[in-house]
């Protein structure tokens, strides 16, 4: 059975499973739609959180980033993992004890202001749609390559599947679907990594294989051989970093605090019965996430090594079929500049307008748009998004492994997309409509608005998937920066400051979000030719500017808070209640969860 037929079977079976779960777990109330009724077991919630967390950026793009950036790519590992620890320790238990449905719900109540609630909704919508654009692009890439389906049709199919379990099941359907998706994606990630580790080093544990000797008789370790190979081709050493220390710190911090401010991850902790269960599910989720995150550096190094060995100086007429199939969808490109018929891989942009992968400071990757040659000796363009997906083909693994990776990539993208679309719909229906514009609506009407909002959000997400704004992990990194600059400071101050006023919180959120959005937009869309360390403020890249936005948020909030009236006594009592551990004084059980 060939790879494409197996892929149809694997993907079709997984989609049938997701839709079946959605029908079985159809939400019948707003509480089930928003927080799965608050009855999810910590282990199940940990798996669902891990699936929500490990998006297309983690599954498809992170190892691809590491494969080309080398040492500098570790900022994504440090930032995303460290941010999850920050979220679990500083925010999740307290927000769960507060017991509301959404992040804007907490901000609106804590800052006793519908204006603060609306600002939080706007921030959430911008962040979530920025994030979901990367997920839908991942869906399109998988469909176009593995299922021989046009990207537009592939995105539409993905939208239909998400519609089934997000609109019908809400958080209840999404939770149990994400448990299944975690199982699919982690199996799909680990199996090829284990196979390739055995092929290259003879060691079945990829994390150990990364530091082991290559079994080619050279006596070199994987990283030493990769360094030597890249240096021979003219690239910088894989194990050296090109980014400045300040930019590495800024990106890591932006990803960390952005992670802690991501609403679709925070809301997962509202679905468990007790505060203690929120802590337990955070621990389980970290364990499930670590399985992929500790494997990614090995996958990235193996992929780059295999790619160079397979492609460089190979006659195009005899190059493996995977190279030509990815070339057909525009994610690999080749032009014979020296007319020798062989593929030459070297630093520099292969085409006019294509990225320069000579070091980690080049653009993050985009589709090849033209075959016009440049003066550089490089003849190969490769989009970083394909490295994990193409890895089994490059290593000549069995067809069923290739099919499994395709199903895993779709599971990662769809699980996160569903979580993002749900927080958008709940914020619109619960915070914008019920709590602001139409306070007298019934629970049934609110549920209808939630489903309508989810359907509209899926439509917008589909458009972004068909017209993607950029490279998956790059777009996702911007979402983290926006979350870092807007929601995280407001949530943190709301929990740990009894006196922060609504005026301070609102001013801080608006300042942080506006500054970060404009900085990113300027360097990425308005003047991309200036997107380099020479023109960045203090040498901080757009991926790391969320840290500066967060600092501005805190500073403006603090100044405005001092100049305005402090929070009323009722809010101070609320904050004290949130911060008292359950069991010391037992408040009423989740009195806010009334629907």
Quick gist of this model?
The chain has about 600 residues and is mainly alpha-helical. The protein has one domain (about 5-300, about 395-580): Up-down Bundle (Sodium/glucose cotransporter), CATH 1.20.1730.10.
Spell out the blueprint of helices and strands.
Elements: H1 3-24, H2 30-35, H3 42-53, H4 56-69, H5 74-98, H6 103-110, H7 114-146, H8 151-168, H9 170-201, H10 206-209, H11 222-233, H12 245-260, H13 263-266, H14 275-293, H15 296-311, E1 314-315, H16 321-328, E2 332-334, E3 342-343, E4 380-382, H17 387-394, H18 399-437, H19 443-466, H20 472-496, H21 502-526, H22 545-563, H23 569-579
Antiparallel strand pairs: 1-3, 2-4
Helix pairs in contact: 1-8, 1-9, 1-18, 3-9, 3-14, 4-15, 4-18, 4-20, 5-12, 5-14, 5-23, 6-7, 6-20, 7-8, 7-18, 7-19, 7-20, 7-21, 8-9, 8-18, 8-19, 9-18, 11-15, 12-20, 12-22, 15-17, 17-18, 18-19, 20-21, 20-22, 21-22
Indicate the low-confidence ranges by residue numbers.
358-367, 583-595
β-sheet strand percentage: under 5%
Helix tally? Answer: 23
Distance between the amino and carboxyl termini: 51 Å
CATH superfamily: Sodium/glucose cotransporter
Order of helices and strands: HHHHHHHHHHHHHHHEHEEEHHHHHHH
CATH class: Mainly Alpha
Description:
By secondary structure, this protein is mostly helical. The protein has a single domain (3-302, 396-579), classed as Sodium/glucose cotransporter, CATH 1.20.1730. The protein has helices at 3-24, 30-35, 42-53, 56-69, 74-98, 103-110, 114-146, 151-168, 170-201, 206-209, 222-233, 245-260, 263-266, 275-293, 296-311, 321-328, 387-394, 399-437, 443-466, 472-496, 502-526, 545-563, 569-579, and strands spanning 314-315, 332-334, 342-343, 380-382. The strands form 2 sheets. A two-stranded antiparallel ribbon has the order 1-3. A two-stranded antiparallel ribbon has the order 2-4. The longest helix is centred in the C-terminal third of the chain and has 39 residues, at 399-437. The chain starts with a helix and ends in a 16-residue tail after the last helix.
């Amino acid at each position: 059975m060939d790879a494409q037929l197996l892929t149809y079977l694997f993907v079709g079976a997984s989609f049938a499973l997701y839709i079946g779960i959605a029908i079985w777990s159809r939400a019948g109330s707003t509480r089930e739609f928003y927080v799965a009724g608050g009855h999810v077991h910590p282990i199940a919630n940990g798996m669902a959180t891990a699936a929500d967390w490990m998006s297309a950026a983690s599954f498809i793009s992170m190892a691809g980033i590491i494969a080309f950036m080398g040492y500098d790519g570790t900022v994504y590992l440090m930032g995303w993992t460290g941010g999850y620890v920050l979220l679990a320790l500083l925010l999740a238990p307290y927000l769960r004890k507060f017991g509301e449905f959404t992040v804007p719900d907490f901000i609106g109540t804590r800052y006793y202001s519908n204006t603060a609630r609306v600002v939080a909704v706007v921030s959430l919508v911008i962040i979530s749609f920025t994030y979901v654009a990367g997920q839908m692009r991942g869906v399109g890439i998988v469909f176009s390559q593995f299922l021989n389906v046009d990207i537009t049709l592939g995105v539409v199919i993905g939208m239909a599947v998400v519609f089934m379990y997000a609109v019908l099941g809400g958080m209840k359907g999404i939770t149990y679907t994400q448990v299944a998706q975690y199982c699919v994606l982690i199996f799909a990630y680990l199996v090829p990594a284990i196979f390739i580790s055995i092929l290259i080093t003879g060691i079945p544990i990829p994390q150990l294989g990364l530091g082991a000797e290559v079994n080619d008789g050279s006596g070199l370790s994987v990283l030493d051989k990769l360094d030597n190979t890249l240096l021979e081709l003219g690239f910088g050493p894989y194990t050296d970093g090109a980014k400045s220390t300040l930019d590495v710190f800024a990106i890591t911090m932006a990803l960390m605090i952005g992670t802690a401010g991501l609403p679709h991850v925070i809301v997962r902790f509202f679905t468990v019965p007790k505060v203690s269960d929120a802590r337990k599910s955070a621990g389980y989720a970290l364990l499930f996430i670590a399985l992929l995150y500790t494997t990614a550096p090995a996958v990235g190094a193996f992929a780059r090594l295999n790619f160079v060995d397979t492609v460089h100086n190979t006659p195009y007429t005899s190059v493996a079929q995977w190279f030509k199939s990815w070339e057909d969808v525009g994610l690999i490109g080749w032009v014979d500049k020296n007319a020798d018929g062989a593929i030459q891989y070297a630093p520099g942009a292969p085409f006019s307008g294509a990225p320069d992968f000579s070091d980690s400071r080049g653009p993050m990757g985009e589709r090849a748009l033209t075959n016009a040659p440049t003066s550089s000796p490089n003849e190969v363009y490769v989009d970083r998004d394909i490295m994990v997906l193409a890895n089994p083909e490059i290593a000549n693994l069995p067809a069923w492994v290739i099919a499994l990776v395709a199903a895993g990539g779709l599971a990662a993208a769809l699980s996160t997309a569903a979580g993002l679309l749900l927080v958008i719909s709940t914020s619109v229906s619960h915070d914008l409509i019920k709590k602001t514009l139409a306070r007298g609506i019934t629970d049934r009407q609110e549920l209808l608005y939630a489903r309508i909002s989810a359907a509209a959000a899926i439509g917008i997400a589909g458009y972004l998937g068909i017209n993607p704004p950029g490279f998956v992990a790059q777009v996702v990194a911007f979402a983290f920066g926006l979350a870092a600059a807007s929601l995280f400071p407001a949530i943190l101050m709301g929990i740990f400051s009894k006196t922060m006023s609504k005026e301070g919180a609102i001013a801080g959120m608006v300042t942080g979000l506006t500054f970060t959005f404009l900085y990113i937009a300027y360097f990425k869309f308005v003047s991309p030719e200036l997107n380099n360390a020479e023109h960045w403020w203090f040498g901080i890249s757009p991926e790391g500017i969320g840290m500066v936005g967060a600092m501005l948020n805190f500073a403006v909030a603090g100044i405005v808070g001092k100049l305005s009236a402090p929070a009323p006594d009722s809010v101070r009592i609320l904050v004290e209640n949130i911060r008292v551990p359950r069991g010391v004084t037992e408040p009423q059980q989740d009195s806010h969860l009334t629907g």
